[in-house]
């Protein structure tokens, strides 16, 4: 081995050895044994790395601490004082108040904790306490209600005190001591990021960032540390997403599609000319498909009614021009059936054959479809998960479309692509998401966006109503039925007995001490609502639709609603995507406070799709306070804008990114350090750097990138066995 190569290998091996410090068991640290070790493991802390990334949930900033007298009213302040006495009160049944009286040399502060009786056992007279909360004045005293608090003890050195998540068996003071010991052990920790990258992005080193995130000298240093850790988090995710695809696509020859007579014939057959945004998206897709050196991975993002299907069909026609096959997979049989019903006539006009395959397809018809598919006599297959079956074999699959991509797992996406090695991929979503979230979650995909409807339609007006105004919504349903139109009523539950804990975790939902949704307005269930509405509208045919019905039952109900045999369709959010009934002009959404903005926006997009304007009534509890509740504030935003992307930005600020896209249910990841609303520049930079790193080292196997590769594989596990060679 040449000396120069040997030296490079030794340097890389040394860096990897120094990185392995984080993998060592937490029990090797000073102070970690017995009950404290058990307490750490209950918190999910198994290694030194787990501990160092167990970051504080907040900080008490004593560099800006106030005395009780100097604390300004109406502002969030940190005050350090001594407990004078603790008083427990029960002003009414099921309501406990713990009053803590704090004193310093300047005055008295009254602190009230509601429904937290354990605080009286945690705090005693004589304790030194730091409290952080809004200072108010009443009955002659300064007061705080349910502030963050921390007992000040031997671990409270320095002007900024971290407050870590802890549990039974380990105190804040012990956590700080143990973390300090871990930081000492990790002094030799080698930074996984290449030095030139850190210098270019002006990022502090990893070891300094870890120390500063736990024990910052200032809040400014804490912010710089978070920024460094956030950049690394996004970079690793970007690399993981791209490597996930590349592991399957390396050494696979791309299909170079052509734009020929089928594409031109389809453009001519469309009942409308593509809008500028549609044409730009189509051109981007066709250009990607034509490349001989790269397999396409593209996301087509567009709000409800922006015409994504027409753009996808142009790409399907390009596959036909190339003598190969296409597959369009949808998450529900309703949506797959709609695709086939609207697209097949257009494709037939231009000489492209197609068929629909779902779980409800009769056995004889299914066998006929599969035979045509294998023989190459079928150009396009529309379907649901049914297309993933082992006996669904294509003659030459070169183009895959997956609609509502976030409803499918990564494995399902790859399983479909495996049926056509080298096939180009187009994923579509009608859930508007901000660019930062698109880059973070779909970092392996190039993005095309359609923001405006090419055919606006009559549109939809949204109104938020409380129970006292329910007659307005019912009156609108009566008027719609009298005009020959139809109506939806959407409920959060299928049956009264269903658990509300399965519903979306949206802001503004009050919770009890166990973290469960507190008692509130009755949650409406489809089965009960059908019975109720049958009495309210005796002249109407009311029917139900929900996910527990078979595919065949759902198809029958949708057909009857579309043709007018059903007047009022009571449904769960199964109608959120894909149900297109132009005669439906009214929607009533029950318990609107229990849905996220993205879901509500998708639901209201089901009405006003034709020439008649639609109205969506969102039922929500009345706000009995002077201050509007967070839930009602979200719904007011829904009233004021029909821009799905503006609502997505708001939803991103209010909710976790994984909740917006359902990532937790579909094998997604959670970002701990990144603020998707504020870190736009950081996310853009990490995206660009990931692309550049993989351009120079497609498997991250160069000397400079091997530590990053090690981190990606370590963090994202079995997904990257192909990349790691494991």
Describe the structure.
The protein is of the alpha/beta class. The protein folds into four domains: 3-57 and 172-190, no CATH class; 59-163, Nucleic acid-binding proteins (OB fold (Dihydrolipoamide Acetyltransferase, E2P)), CATH 2.40.50.140; 261-450, P-loop containing nucleotide triphosphate hydrolases (Rossmann fold, 3-Layer(aba) Sandwich), CATH 3.40.50; 460-510 and 520-655, P-loop containing nucleotide triphosphate hydrolases (Rossmann fold, 3-Layer(aba) Sandwich). The protein has 25 helices and 22 strands. The strands form four sheets. The protein has a seven-stranded mixed sheet with strand order 6-7-4-3-2-5-8, with no helix packed on it. Helix 5 (172-185) packs antiparallel against helix 7 and helix 8 (219-249) crosses helix 23 (680-696). The model is unreliable at 13-18, 505-517, 658-669 and 722-726 (pLDDT under 50).
